[in-house]
Amino acid sequence: MQDLYSIVLGEGTPLIVLHGFLGMSDNWKTLGRRYAEEGLQVHLVDQRNHGRSFHSDTFNYDVLSEDLKVYLLKKNIPKAIILGHSMGGKTAMQFACTYPELTEKLVVADIAPKFYPPHHQAIINALNTLDFDRITSRKDADEQLAIHIKEWGIRQFLLKNLYWEHKTRLGLRINLPVLSQRMAEIGENINSTASYSGDTLFLRGGRSEYINENDFPEIKRHFPKARLETIENTGHWLHAENPNQFFSLSKEFIDS
Question: Which of 66, 73, 153, 163 is the most buried (most CB within 10 A)?
C-alpha cells in the first residue's frame, strides 16, 4: 500500500485532520497551525485520490479507514485524536469504530453516520468540462467553471486542485475519473452495527442540513458518548465560515 501525503505541524499529542470530498490538506493549514501552537502534533492528511496522495481505482470508507491505520503505523503513532469533515468525517467514524484502540478521541464535522443521496453531480459535471488543452491559467479555469458554478467561493475551493503537471500544462490533483464513478460511495453510511464507545464530539453548522435533530438517536447508537454542538450562522463549511468557534469548541473537547 502506498503512503498518504501529509503536512505535519508542531509537537505533542497527535491530531489527525481529514478533509472533505474534493478537498485536501491545504484547506486546513490555518486551523492546523492554531492546534499546533496549542501543543498538538497536527497531521493534515490527503486521503487517496485527493491532493498529493496516490490515485487508486478502489475507493470506499473501508479502504480509506485502512489507509489511515497504515499511516499511523508507519508514523509510529500508537493512538491519535481523529478529526474529520464531511467525507473525512465518515472516514473518521469508520476508523474509530474499526480501530478503537488507535483512537484517542473523535471529532466529526457536519456529517452523520447515515446514507446521503449523491448530491455533488453538478460539481463533478462542471469539473469534467474543463479542457486543459485550452486552459493556460487559473483565470481560464475559473472562467470555464463559472459557466456551470455561479458561487465564487465554491470555485475557489475547487481551483485549489489545480497544479502544473509540467511547465506548460495544468491539471487537477484529484482523481476525477474514479471520483466521478464512485459518487455513491461518498454518501454511504457506516456499518449498521459499528460503534465506538470513546469520547466523541459532533459539530454541525447552524444553517447546514447535513445533521438534523432526527439524526441524534442514530448518532448515539453508534457513538454512545457523543456530544452535539452547533456553530451558529454557518453552513457545511463551518470550519472555514467560523474558524474561531470551531477551534474553541474542538480544542475545549480535546482538552477535557
Answer: 66
Neighbours of 7 (CB within 10 A): 18
pLDDT along the chain (256 residues), means of 10: 93 98 96 98 98 96 97 98 98 97 98 91 93 94 95 92 93 96 88 92 97 94 97 94 97 96
Sign of CA pseudo-dihedral 5, 10, 11, 14: negative
Cα gap 243→237, rounded to integer Å: 10
Place of cell 489527525: 16
Whole-angstrom distance, CA of residue 131 vs CA of residue 203 = 38
Whether the CA torsion 3, 28, 220, 102 is positive or negative: it is positive
- Indicate the angle between helix axes 152-159 and 121-128, nearest 10 degrees: 60
> Contact, 23 vs 49, CB < 8 A?
no
Q: What angle do CA 242, 244, 245 make, to 5 degrees?
A: 75
Cβ 104 vs Cβ 143: under 8 Å: no
Task: Measure the CA–CA gap between 29 and 173, rounded to whole angstroms.
Answer: 18
Check if the beta carbon of residue 123 is closer than 8 Å to that of residue 149: yes
Q: Which residues pair with 228 in a beta bridge?
A: 202
Nearest residue to 106 (alpha-carbon basis) of 233, 224, 248, 232: 224
Is 54 buried (19+), middle (13-18) or exposed (0-12) by CB count in 10 A? Answer: middle
Q: Are 195 and 222 in contact (CB under 8 A)?
A: yes
